[in-house]
Amino acid sequence: MPRVRRLTSALLNLVTVAWVAVTAALTLLQVVNLETSITVVLFETFTMYAFLPGYLLVPLVVWQRRRTLAVAGMALLLIQISWVVPALLSSHAATAEQRAHSIRIFDQNVQGAINPTPDQVGAAIRASDADIVTLQEVAEPFIKRLDAMGATNDYPYRLAEADQLVLSKFRLGASQRVGTGTYYFVERTPVVVRGMTFTLYSVHMPAPLYEDDFAHDAAHADTTFWDQAYRDLDADMSALSGPLIAVGDFNATLSHHGLRNLIKNGVVEASVELGHSFDRTWPVRGVFAPFGALIRIDHVLLRGITPIAIGEGDGSGSDHRSVTVDLGLPA
To answer: Quick check: 181 and 187 in contact, CB under 8 A?
Structure first.
């Protein structure tokens, strides 16, 4: 028995040391931007999950009186708690006036080229009763099917660019592409709602493991294109004044610097403001389907507009959940 205890203690120490090393590295990466490596980017993606074993390991090393490990572990858990608690608390309460001037947006990366159930997406759009619909990775046959089933009938205004589709009950102004991407890109357009105008960004960012617009070869992964896309969007948003909404597939979590760098100068992330930042949107198809998605890469960024409510649907044949958000506009 003493030998078993010694082996168990040694194993606990080894596992805890490994956990401390990993979470300490992830904590450092939240401060220092080293996202030039795909390995670092993927490592950061699961930052919040990496801390979870500590809630079991730290009490055990405290019980075993491993002071150094216990202090290091508790410090790391306190850091995570300082991140998590604000993200779980809603910091926005919409006024009655904002609710009276609210709009609803439905967003989804529908994977239109391979989605076998466009009718389900169309049904979800109709059921959402959204004022604006933003879809990524649409394909012409997919759009035609939505039109044929009447899912687009309530939307007199339409913007279709490459793989993106924006449907709106409100007037859309002239659109402009942000950045240099041709398949993965951001489309900017003004939207006029009851006399006020805001800027709408329909977002489809490249994944970090794509080395250019079309090369999807992880063996040649390069974050340069991903990083540049975020720099382009950051510059464009910073140059504009007035209310804005940026919605879509950002291919990043809040653990990534590119996305977090957009959240400044009055820009907020809707799910964080509403205490839903740990609701997950991807992937809901394939081997991860039983887990109901692992991470949130579909976001709604706002400036000068108040989030009221946010929720996620199912995949409707895509590997992304849909996102529906209610927003209070300035009076």
So the answer is: no
- Identify any residues that bridge with 167 across adjacent strands, giving them in sequence order: 133, 158
Pairing of strands 132-136, 102-109: parallel
The pLDDT tens digits of the residues spanning 70-99 come to 999 999 999 999 988 887 776 666 677 767
Q: What length is written for the chain?
A: 331
Q: To 5 degrees, how large is the angle CA 148–CA 172–CA 240? A: 140
Residue 277 to residue 280: CA distance in whole angstroms: 8
* Beta strands at 267-269 and 157-161: parallel, antiparallel or unpaired: unpaired
Q: CA–CA separation, 21 vs 101, rounded Å?
A: 49
Each residue of 228-270: pLDDT tens digit? Answer: 899 999 999 999 999 999 999 999 999 999 999 999 999 999 9
Burial 254-269 (b: 16+ CB within 10 A, else e): bbbbbbbebbeeebbb
Q: Can you give the pTM of this predicted structure?
A: 0.93
